[in-house]
Amino acid sequence: MSLRSYRIYGISVRSFLPFLNCRGTSARPAIEITEATAKFSSLHTHVKSARARRYSRDYHALPDGSEYMRFFDFLEIWVSPDGRRVLCSLQGKEWQGSFKETLQNFFQTTVLSFSLIKMGMETLHATGIDVQGAGIGILGESRYGKSTLAASFAKEGFNVFTDDILVAYPKQRQVWTAYGSQRLKLFPKMLRHFFGTADMRAPYRPRARKYIVTDIKKPPKKDVLPVKALFVLNPPTRAAAIRIRKVPAGKAVLALLGSSFNSMNLTPARIAQQFDRLTTLSRLVPVYSLQYPRVLSALKTVQKEILQAIQ
Known about the structure:
Blueprint: E1 4-8, E2 11-15, E3 31-35, H1 43-49, E4 53-56, E5 59-61, E6 67-71, E7 75-79, E8 85-90, H2 99-118, E9 123-131, E10 134-139, H3 146-155, E11 159-162, E12 165-167, E13 169-171, E14 174-178, E15 184-186, H4 188-194, E16 211-213, E17 224-233, E18 243-246, H5 249-257, H6 268-284, E19 287-291, H7 299-309
């Protein structure tokens, strides 16, 4: 496959796999993702011989600062010490066909997160909404309702500028973010409610119940925007009242740490970087806790409450 460059998370990435909903760019790539050559097709053998430190079943930190990961039993990833080079080995044909779109999305989020972290950028597990040129982030664990709430905003004409990963760039007492992976993962019922069955695409992963929705507005030419506020979702419940409360500064950093993306890289260097970057972020951007009943009839009111909070 030929390499093409795409604009995502405020940088240029050159990849052998096409990126979904991303503008092409001629800028010099900050990260390059390529298939491993025949001489480097067995990454696992290389890792074993390098005395890598194993942090989890599928993640290894090598002595030279590079990283090795294995996913889905057929995908191996190696990331260079500076994060700017990514090699992958795809085995078998499981990734082709309907799963190809899922794999593209996986590279835009999970795989890129390892490079972004090595380049000094912390990643939050969040969905981002563009509100008149300013970004708000909806944070929370999986199945807390980030995508459903974002879909309700999209139906009202707001742009979803990223999903799964939100990258924040503190600069001169202001925090900026950028358009990332523009898609949503929705259960069939929610997908039909907000977008209709025509937009149902590939499953998020094999045998998954969620589907990927990519029919979202394309990123504008100005794809970098200031972060207005971050909303951390409370665990879902059907009986809760709608409540938005500002999180005190001392607790805000803990809320952000609990909403970090990429829990595989737990090296001492990454943990130190997390505390440093997220402490700065918590001081510059208001962080709110958000509680609301997980029923469709409540979403319009939740939208109004969020928009009122950031005025």
